[in-house]
Amino acid sequence: MEELEMQVNQIEQLIASGDLVGLEEFLNELNISEVEELIDELPEHGPLFIESLNLNRAVNVFRILDFPTQNRIFKKLSKAKISALINELPPDDRTSFFSEMKDDIKHLILLLPPKDRVEALALLGYPEDSVGRLMTPDYITVKEHWSIERILGHIRRYGRDSETIDVLYVIDGNGKLVDDIRIKDVLMAEPDTVVGELIDHRLISLNAYDPQEEAINIFRMNNRVALPVVDEHGVMLGIVTVDDILWVANEEYTEDMQRIGGTEALDEPYLDVSIKNLVKKRAGWLIVLFLGQLLTATVIEHFEEQMASAIMLFALMPVIISSGGNSGSQASTLIIQAMALGEVTLGDWWRVMRREIISGLLLGLILGTLGFVRIMAWQSFAHSYGEYWVLVALVISLSLVGVVLWGSLMGSMLPFVMKRLGADPASSSAPFVSTLVDVTGLLIYFSVATLILKGVLL
After folding, report:
1. What's the half-sphere exposure (Cβ side, CA atoms, 13 Å) at 297?
2. Is the sign of the CA dihedral 405, 411, 416, 417 positive or negative?
3. Range with the poorest average pLDDT among 226-230, 285-289, 294-298
4. Sheet holding 177-182, edge to edge
5. Which end of the chain has the least Cβ crowding within 10 Å, N or C?
């Protein structure tokens, strides 16, 4: 942090004195991550930093910025720098940038040479959240009959333009993917060894139309730096590297956390979002939750006359509501997280339900016991619940068991329902689950109270 402050001070002095040559030399000596931090600290000078860096470093800095920062800087760059950046960006990063630019990409695509233009349009032709949008066509392919010596010569000739040479891809005469081999195995083999002797046919690949979320899980389970992408016929189209997957995983995590909190996903950093857009993002969910809470009020009004003679039941109502909502939120969060990690799929819904019935019942019994003890303690010291305190305690205990069990079931099953309908499971967020459980929890509570206390207190 202290070093960053020193860099900021030095940058500000160079800019104030108009020493652009010194600024260029200073920036080109820094790591790209340090330049990115300086852009965060001095956002107004971001375009100047990108203009000052040599082209290779400018590209490497630009590609690690989030899109709102990229867009803000891009609009203030010179035409020459824009053209150079667009042409030098790796195909996958260029596709990602173009995807976010939406309607403004036509004039940018025209800046590309014909071959790159065709490539960019092909990558943009894949669905927005598909693996095809992440892949790059810059990779090294080899043939089964090639020797190690020939492979090394091929890498020297074409490796500079490849996204990575850590993995080489074996294809047949029709471009179909046969296998992949690690560069380590190539370097350790004898010069006269042929590729066919190195392959083991334990191939892991992605389809261009696979969801990006699925690719994240495959990378996580297989510890790969890159994976090949094929079409439905097995023809190799490109590769996806782990840096792109990490970027997507971070975006998915951020969106899920915002949805779990009961808001729409923000498209840019919080402090860059206008108040108007911030209200729009939050208002929808708040209205839905408010309407849900109106149902809670309706349930209370329906039972109000019956419960008037047992006013202590209203005093204990928050205990019931909060317990059901908390258990539902817990279950919902656990299942959404398990789905995101690939630990749970749609086919596991019955196993999850059985587990939640058991765990919900046990959790309900624990809270129900505590509720009974609480009523008994207050009755012992203050005689708060009258001669029928045992029945009141029984109402609280049984209601807690029912509400916690129901909350666990609702919270765990809603993500499955949302996913089955094609929606994001994170949309069945904690506030949404809590509101639903509030309404049904009150029905359980008042129904149990009516059943047990009818003819006694009611």
Report:
1. 6
2. positive
3. 285-289
4. 141-142, 167-171, 177-182
5. N
